[in-house]
Records
---
Amino acid sequence: MRIMVIGAYGHAGKLIMREAVRRGHDVVGIAHRMHKHESTNNIVIKDMMDLTKADISNVDAIVDAVGAWTAGTEAVHYNGLEHITQMIAGTTIHYLKIGGANTLFIDKKHRHTLQELPLYYPDYMQDVCNAHAEGLKILRTYDDVNWTYVTPTFNFDPNGQKTGNYQVEGEEIKVPSSHDPNDGKHDYISYADFSKAVIDIVEQHKFVHQRITLVSGDNPHPTWRY
């Protein structure tokens, strides 16, 4: 398969690319700028907003692993998403957007999200949270795009081990009655296991038109926030 990874120099993007290459796929990474001391193999330096239909015409899947956390950059989580989806509408390309755990529902009626709990997402994170939520809202409107919104669970560990174990769950996360993330259970996954899961989904072309959550178990360091 030919797989494009947008955000190729980010923590998640880098590992997703590595996993895809390890399995023998033809991989191209997109990064908006050069990074010192990083490999340029299979990397195209181009802002995702400048990507054209010609750039994506021969790919089977696009993994959008863009990470934007600073003020003024977070809009890429929805305007970048919409730019890509408009180009691939009506095609067979599978678009996987790596989303934010803030969008997970904390009630059965899906009226409230994790973003509303300040111990999980304090005020300074709300702009980024809103951008992720807007991206998911936009994605749900595209019936003619083979999209999957892939959410890591709350404790997303860049330094965790690759165990090979993970579960695919739905749109809800169970929070402790204290609403304190340190008391949470079944809310952990390492970047390494997450990357394995993403490429599994790409290869199997599963969960189209679904938002899913990837989780591997309890946080091994419950007082740490990743």
---
Amino acid sequence: MAVCTKWCEFKFYTRLLKGTYQNSRTVSSSARVTSCAHGEPERKHKKYTNTVALPRTDFPLRLDSRKRIDRDNYVHEKCEFSTLYDWQRKHVQGPEFILHDGPPFANGKPHIGHAINKILKDIIIRQKLLQGYQIHYVPGWDCHGLPIELKALVGETNLSAVTIRKKAEQFAREAIADQKEAFRSWGVMADWDKCYFTFDKQYVKNLLRQFHRLYEMDLVYRDVKPVFWSPSSRTALAEAELEYNPAHCSMAITVRLLMQRVPDAICSFIPPHIASVFALIWTTTPWTLPVNQAVCFNPDLSYSLVSIDGHSGEMYIVASELVEMLQQKLCRRVEIVTTFPGSSLGGARYIHPCRSEQVQPFLPAAHVTTTKGTGLVHSAPAHGPEDYLVALEHSIRIECFVDEAGCYTEDAGPALQGLSVLSEGNEAVMTLMSENILHSEQLVHSYPYDWRTKQPVILRACCQWFIDTNAIKQKAIEALKTVKIFPEHGGSAKSGGGLLAQLERRPYWCISRQRVWGVPLPVFYHKTSGTPILTESLINHLCYLLDEHGRDFWWTLPLDRLVPEEVLSEHAVSLDELEKGQDILDIWFDSGFSWSSVLNGQKVADLYLEGLDQFNGWFQSSLMTSVALRGQAPYRAVFVHGFAVDAEGRKMSKSQGNVVDPLDITHGGQDKKSEPAYGIDTLRWWVACHATEHSNIPVSRNVLEASAEAVHKIRIVLRFLLGTLHDLPSDVDVNSEPML
């Protein structure tokens, strides 16, 4: 077995040494006495050596790279790690310890992050085994989703849905085989014969049934809402599928909107020579102005009517606290004419910035602040969650002029139709509004990107399926109070506070995706009304079809095979009135229900162990689904580790050329002098020493050399123990009680 986790064996040898060392010396002395009694003359050079118990062993002090690799292969073959798990399930009678495996994506070769995660898990379950626990650890893989689908589409165009699914499945299976081989080679003890996969029939059937349960409980619903949308992937994304680019550059503009009706509170302060009064807004998304539907103000703030040097015959409305900031930005003197309460803006109206025939309202909103901008917020309900909520409150019909590709539709007008809102469309809007832009600047800020395509995303209103997080959130927060988070760091973002904070600010969970490699969202719709058709009898029928026709049944069978007569009669509809849904389920919904499949829906895991990023991913999705359906967290404790970084503390990435392959650590790189084969023991030791905190995990030549040296010191001790016990009889009984 690998040295780095064999402290238990070390204790075993120590105990053995203490208990049998004297016996060993006695046996040796007796043998020598017997030999002399029989008159056998001792050779002169053994006169003294035979009186001393000197260590004798063939165990080598050092191994070169080639022998180290051979030794690892030999240990893996002879120690039968694969049977250890089965043995302990049958013979260990202690309490069960459940470590539930978070499924890695089946989208590539094993990497250093896999090594950190799997070896940490192995260290824990081996410790628990030596403490007398029976271990439950079933590895799994997340087999669906955009990352795998994109890999299947490389170099391909115009493929059918079924072809894409076949290619994606093949790619996932190949990745699983590669990863599984590596995980086993690292000495990980697990139920390798009963791994779970999110594309297995039984797993998919469970997902269909659980989705229906949530639907029956009114915890999932369909609605038009602004969601994160990736134009590059043409699908909605969950928060966990985003990464934020801190160096994103946006064009921020200050725009004037012509008032059509000014507040009564300021009418008497407007001189006769003033021809126009404008409201000033500030936005970093000029492309959303064509779909502007209101301007929001905060009724608790004070606003000012101001004049600006160089703008004769005009006055402007801005939050009083931001007048000085406006003056600095424009580099012009801004003079306050009068100040009035924000509540006075309630009846005001303005002319739409892009459609002069359209008049829009001013609406009160609590999300308006004076931290930046002008204190008046341009509202586009199709492209912002706060704007959306304001629109709902005031019964405003939501308009969206952006299609799946992130381009303007014909509703935006001929000058904008077909233009990408993130590039030429944004520029076109600013050109159209140039006369009303008082100031523009480049703003570098953090902005969400698609985690796979590395391209910016937008917020876009479309019809999607959601989990009602508001109905679950408070129960989840209460359930989280009973969960232990390790390592303990108080309430910081890197401990339980991180999960709690993510949970508290999550507005809703969009669980539908517009792709094909995934579990079909099992819903049919009435063509006229759009009413969803989803019943228990339908789910039972779909599960039967899944068993009979395989996981592609949703895409291969005609509508009359998918919808049974029982469902048509139940809803009093004909087949011609229905259409099949085209969405699949979010992969975080897939993996978030792993507790339901792997733990049989009843057990609670003793431990979930994953990286920091899972606070916003698997930890949260598992918590939400478990609380929704059984009122408790799926885990009693959570252990969180950091990420591998290079010697300079930089995150590993292919573009920077600093990625370390775990295979290069164990087997050596191309240049064996600069990248020697350290072996699996060193890899495991490095993980044990450096990966047990939230902090990032350094991996470099110096760190690996230090780990190799530490393993060598243990090797010296073991060599001494083996040498000292070389003549120990093999039938000596050893205390069988737990060694830890």
---
Amino acid sequence: MWNWITSNHQVIGTLVNIAMLFVWIAYLQVFVSSYRRQKRSSILINRSSGSGLDARCLISNMSAEAIYIESIIATVATAEGRWSCPVTEPLEGRSDLDLKTRQGPLQAGRFIDIGSFQSLIEPALRMGTVAPNRSENLVAVEIKVIAAHGSEDLLAGATRRFDVIRQQDRLLLRGHVVGTHQIRSRRERERLHDDVELDL
């Protein structure tokens, strides 16, 4: 056995080096994947304090870094059609920036209450043929958050759709799917600039 190892030590050494190379390549892939996941934005959109239209809409930043919320867009789907409207600036004539705008920095691991779903959908309903106080024909509500993240040139974003469920003369909101859709593809992220321009 020892004689065989001695006579084939060059071949064995080469095989060991090749095996080590594959191990390092696998380790590098794991490291790069982990690094890219950490650098990705992760924005969550949730419902809180109830399940009706008066429930609060929370935006959470689960990224490893802070984000800067550039724009928030509400979209309503009704029996008559579908309308979208920026809701970044909820109030007029207020000097307190915390109350006047939903725009601004959001640190990692923090969340912001952007108001009730009713207050978010009213501007979008005004864009259509539905009176803001008449929401019986609502089918779904979609919230889109657009933010700057880190040193990336492209904007980051996330969307979540809530279906409107009728139960005992009440309108309830239920997430269309579990979790928030993160806007990842380059093409989708490039389109976010157009959405922000509409909010200028």
---
Amino acid sequence: MPTDIFPVTANADDGYRYSTTTFAITATICGNNGSAGNNYSTFLRFTNITIPQGAVISNAKLLFVCLSGPTGTGCNTRITGEHADNPAAVTSQVDWDNRVKTTKFVDWDGIPTWIVGQPYESPNIANVIQDIIEEDWWDSGDAIQIFWEEHGAVVASGNYRYPADYSHASYTEPRLEVTWLDSGSVELPAKFAVRHMTPVDLLSKFEIPTTFTLSGRTRDRDGNRLGNCEVALFRTIEGNPPTYLFIESDMSDANAFYSFTGLIRTKYFVRGRKEGSPNVFDTT
């Protein structure tokens, strides 16, 4: 499965809001600092997200470097995304309030004290990213905007976290790390040994017509594309244990693309082997 890291790449693509009066692109802060109204929240916009529509997101997290180290232990926050096609950066408090957020979220509560200059990461927010990537309007190369907001932080001084933003002279800007798999990809071990593949359950994942095309890329476990790799398609036959009916096989091209067309709706297994390996496919 490939893992990609997408940094904030412009000063206007991260910032914060404070209370009901302040909006700025000069810092990234989240939490509470001493009274009911002293709440900070942050937005982060990551551009050129080169993940295909419908990819399966297995892991995603925000990466930060601490700029300031307040010591409060009641920093409770929530992470959502903007549920919109290639969103522009937030420009004001009113603009922020008008953005449509994902229904999926992750609560990041009780964040321990951070040490200045040290790296930190959020919990897994794969469900938030999946909520965006799976939409029909998503295209590889679009932007993803994340909202990291105060959510029930204990009202006390220092209950906020303060990572470096894009404009900091020496610390790394906020980044989004995503591990993903093409919805139709074949994943092979790095040494090209034959391997039981993950089933592609098209019927439950997609609304599809009577016939359709299944396509994707062959990659090894390290995310490297494997051209000239033989790919086979099997149909599952219900039973305990299930059995597998061989449908057809083909070779992926030099760019690792493969495609099977004219398929009927059912559940399929996709398997592959490097060209020249033993002439068998694992069906166990």
